[in-house]
C-alpha cells in the first residue's frame, strides 16, 4: 500500500488506510483563511448513512482526499477531481466519491475527492459563489502539486454527479470568467453523470434554489448558472451519462450541454440509457444497459490519455 507524504505546504496531513487505497487528506485552504467564510462562525460537520448512502453536511472546512493508483497503467499520469452530488444540500460522499475514486485508481489514475462547502448563509458571505470557489482552489492545488503525485498537469479532469455535475460544469465553463478567472483552475476534461446543468426550464429546482437562495428568481442569475448557455470553444472535452427515466434531473440537462458542446466544436461524447433512474453511479443492475457506462467512460479516457 502506498503512502503519500505532502511536502512544500505548512499543513496537517492525516493518513487513513483501507483495504484498497491509501488516502491523504489535505485542507483545501492551508493558509487558514477560507474565502467567503463569515469570521468566527463554524458548524459541526455531520456524517450519516441513510439508505446505504453516506451523507455529509455542514462542511465549513473543505478538503481534498488524494488516492494513488493501485497498479501501473498508460493513464497513470492523469488525475480526476471528483465532486459528489447531493442537491447542494449534502454530499453523497460514498458512492459518488470514495467508491468512484477506487474505480479510477484501479485503472491507473490519481483520484481526488473534493469535499466542498455547500451554500449556507449562516456561515458564508456570498453562498452561491462558495462551491465554485472551492472547486477552483481544488483544481489549482492538484495542478500545483502535480509533480509530487506523478501527475501530468495537462491531464487533470473533473467529474461530477447530479448537483456535483452542476459544480463540475460550472468549473468547466466559468473558470475564465469574472475577476476570479484563473487558467490554472481549468480542467482538461470533464465527466458528467446525470448532471444538473440548466437553471431554466427542466431545472432541478432544489439544486437551483439552494445555490441561488434569495436570487433564485433573478433572471441574470438563472442565465449565469445555466451552464448550457456558458459553453464556449474553450470548454474542456466532455463525457456525459444520463438515464432517460431520471425523475430527479431530466435528461434534457445532459442533452442541452452536449448540444452546446457540438455547437462550439468542443469534443463531446454522450451516453443515454432508457432506464437507470437517478443517482446510480456504479450501483447499476446486472444486465441493464446503463451498467455499460463505466466501460464506455474508460474507453473514452484511453482515447486521449495515451
UniProtKB/TrEMBL annotation:
- Gene Ontology terms for molecular function: hydrolase activity
Keywords, A to Z, come to: Hydrolase, Signal
Keyword Hydrolase present in the record's keywords: the answer is yes
Q: Which residues form the signal peptide?
A: 1-22
From which domain of life does this come? Bacteria
- Residue ranges of domain BD-FAE-like in the record: 64-257
Which InterPro entries does the entry mention? AB_hydrolase_fold (IPR029058), BD-FAE-like_dom (IPR049492), GDXG_lipolytic_enzyme (IPR050300)
**PANTHER family with a match to the protein in the record:** AB HYDROLASE SUPERFAMILY PROTEIN C4A8.06C (PTHR48081), PEPTIDASE S9 PROLYL OLIGOPEPTIDASE CATALYTIC DOMAIN-CONTAINING PROTEIN (PTHR48081:SF6)
Q: What is this protein called?
A: Alpha/beta hydrolase
Tell me which species this is from. Fibrella aquatilis
Amino acid at each position: 500500500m502506498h503512502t503519500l507524504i505532502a511536502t512544500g505546504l505548512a499543513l496537517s496531513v492525516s493518513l487513513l488506510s483501507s483495504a484498497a487505497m491509501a488516502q491523504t487528506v489535505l485542507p483545501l485552504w492551508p493558509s487558514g483563511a477560507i474565502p467567503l467564510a463569515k469570521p468566527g462562525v463554524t458548524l459541526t460537520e455531520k456524517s450519516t448513512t441513510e439508505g446505504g448512502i453516506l451523507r455529509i453536511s455542514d462542511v465549513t472546512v473543505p478538503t481534498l482526499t488524494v488516492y494513488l493508483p493501485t497498479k501501473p497503467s498508460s493513464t497513470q499520469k492523469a488525475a480526476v477531481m471528483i465532486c459528489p452530488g447531493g442537491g447542494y444540500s449534502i454530499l453523497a460522499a460514498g458512492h459518488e466519491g470514495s467508491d468512484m475514486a477506487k474505480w479510477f485508481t484501479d485503472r491507473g489514475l490519481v483520484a481526488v475527492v473534493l469535499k466542498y462547502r455547500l451554500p449556507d448563509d449562516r456561515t458564508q458571505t456570498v453562498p452561491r459563489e462558495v462551491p465554485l470557489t472551492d472547486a477552483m482552489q481544488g483544481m489549482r492545488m492538484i495542478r500545483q502539486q502535480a509533480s509530487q503525485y506523478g501527475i501530468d498537469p495537462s491531464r487533470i479532469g473533473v467529474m461530477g454527479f447530479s448537483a456535483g455535475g452542476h459544480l463540475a460544469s460550472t468549473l468547466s465553463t466559468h473558470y475564465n470568467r469574472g475577476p476570479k478567472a484563473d487558467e490554472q483552475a481549468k480542467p482538461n476534461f470533464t465527466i458528467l453523470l446525470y448532471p444538473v446543468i440548466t437553471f431554466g426550464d427542466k431545472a432541478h429546482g432544489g439544486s437551483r434554489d439552494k445555490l441561488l437562495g434569495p436570487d433564485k428568481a433573478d433572471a441574470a442569475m438563472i442565465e449565469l448558472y445555466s451552464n448550457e448557455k456558458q459553453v464556449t470553444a474553450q470548454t474542456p472535452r466532455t463525457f456525459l451519462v444520463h438515464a432517460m427515466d431520471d425523475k430527479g434531473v431530466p435528461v434534457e440537462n445532459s442533452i442541452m450541454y452536449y448540444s452546446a458542446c457540438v455547437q462550439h466544436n468542443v469534443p463531446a461524447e454522450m451516453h443515454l440509457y432508457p432506464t437507470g433512474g437517478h443517482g446510480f453511479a456504479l450501483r447499476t443492475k446486472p444486465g441493464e444497459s446503463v451498467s455499460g457506462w463505466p466501460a464506455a467512460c474508460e474507453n473514452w479516457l484511453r482515447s486521449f490519455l495515451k
